[in-house]
Description:
Elements: H1 5-29, H2 33-36, E1 41-46, E2 52-54, H3 62-77, E3 86-89, E4 102-111, E5 114-124, E6 153-157, E7 160-161, H4 163-171, H5 176-204, H6 206-229, E8 234-242, E9 253-262, E10 265-269, H7 285-300, H8 308-312, E11 314-317, H9 336-351, E12 366-372, E13 381-387, H10 415-421, E14 424-431, E15 447-453, E16 457-462, E17 483-486, E18 494-496, E19 499-505, E20 510-514, H11 529-538, H12 543-550, E21 554-555, E22 565-566, H13 568-592
Parallel strand pairs: 10-11
Antiparallel strand pairs: 1-2, 1-5, 3-4, 3-6, 4-5, 6-7, 8-9, 9-10, 12-13, 12-16, 14-15, 15-20, 16-19, 17-18, 17-20, 21-22
Helix pairs in contact: 1-5, 3-7, 4-5, 5-6, 7-9
Amino acid sequence: MSTDPITFQVLRARLSGVVQEMQFALFRTGFSTIIRESQDASCALLDPAGKVVAQHVVLPLHIGAFPACAAAVLAEYGEGLRPGDAYLINHTYEGASPHAPDFFIICPVFTDGELLGFAASMAHKGDIGGPVPGSCSARATEIYNEGLHLPAVRYQRGYRTVRELERIVAANSRTPEVVVGDMRGQLGAVRLGERRLREIAAKHGLAGLREYFGELLHISQARVRAAFAGWPDGVATAERFVDDDGIDLERSFRIAVTVRKSGDRLAFDFTGSDDQTAGPANIRPPLLRAACAYVVISLLGTDTYVNSGLLDSLELITRPGSVVDPRFPAAVNTYNPTVHAVVDAVFDAMSRLVPGRGRADGCASRSFVMSGGHVPGTRAYVQYELFGGGTGARPDHDGVSGSSVNHTNGKIAPIEIVESEYATRVVRCELIPDSAGAGRQRGGLGIRREYEVLEPARFSLRSTRHKIAPLGVNGGGDGRIGRLTVNPGTDRERVLPSRYADLPLAPGDRFVLETPGGGGFGSPLERDPLLVLADVRAGYVSPEGAAADYGVALRPGTAPGGRPELDEEATARLRAASRARADGGAAGAAGRTEVTA
Length: 597
């Protein structure tokens, strides 16, 4: 190292602080609720080769998208970069945006006429055209059904905006002012990063900062490989399934991974995964690598340096034409259910290689898009909301309720914002009792959110785990599956599949979104009865669920209207009977199992 250790850590903290400042600026200037409230955006600083050197993790998938998008910009404009330039790309194949609504904006940073690096941001846009509002059709069969795709194009030259680009984007959006406003917010965030990076270079010197970038990436990879070397060697396989691809609703598809750990090398082999899907459920390799990196970060802990050095330490093996390495122009817009399946499968496999690091599956993620303005006299809008549910339990912690899980860190929009900006009313938002997988450690609870439509609207859903439950592990129970019901309790009641495009809704229509709970960890019969009692008193578990799932018997409180109390003797009898039934079932299953070497 030519950079002394103290300066190294000062620079690392300073650059991370710059990225946080960029993100705060972007969130506070966002026109759309998807950026301003749900914070579906990330920022980063990159070296002259387009490698990520600083990212304050908000959406972990973007760490894989940033270098691939930067590479596309460099391939097109590398020889002609000038101070004051800015570029944009959202093409899912020429760059690596997770899907077309994710716009990547980047500007080169020069000091003393030399290229120092780049400041960049990626943020979701509420609508960029296509057959359905929100540009994420569950029925898309190619990317041409997914809205406007832009290759690497110049957004500014000499700090002057190319207005023609904004006009093209605006002309393809149902909410042009919002989308262009968000683009300008991104541009402002990267210009802020440009200024801060120049200030750091002025203090530490261009050569010193460049040396630091190289050393950071080298040290980051060396630290990760040293951690790998401390894990036992081995091979582990796992799989997960996704409900459907939005086209063939009767067929679930498979994500399969084999993880090979040898010395300081870790390889993820996805060649056993299913072929690419007809519907928009495919993901591209940069996102696959980022999903694997997310799991590695989770296993290594908070001291991990999150940058391209981490990415480069992972070996990835895919099969072209598969769901995780699709051929152009396969549709990709509802990619998140597939990424969640990847993350859950990789966690499952890694738990067999790294003792004590297992956890149950979570709820995955979902979003819906509702739009108005299709009838004269009504206001045009695109309401894009993200939703979590229950996270999976861990060996020593219950799951978290009503939370985003895995790589999806987006926030649920506040009810006050939703009702003040859109023609809808939130009737209720609550946790769902008994939705968590039972276990020694309980999963997190899913949420129920009910809406009333106030003006004619069009509705689309991007969800998962409506058929395949979040798995419990080590004897833990599965979480409850999700559900979307339109006009419940009426003669017009209708349950939608987990992916649905363009349902017309009329004023007075209602719909209820119920999100999955997380899986449990360990046998429910090992859970402390007092914790079960506390869950019943909090409304997380019903008295019936306490008896059926945990073998815990309760009795009414002695005071009028008192809270339930634990019946220790009845609980002991219930648990003894449950264990006897479980032992008998295990013996019968063992007698029917064929054992092979």
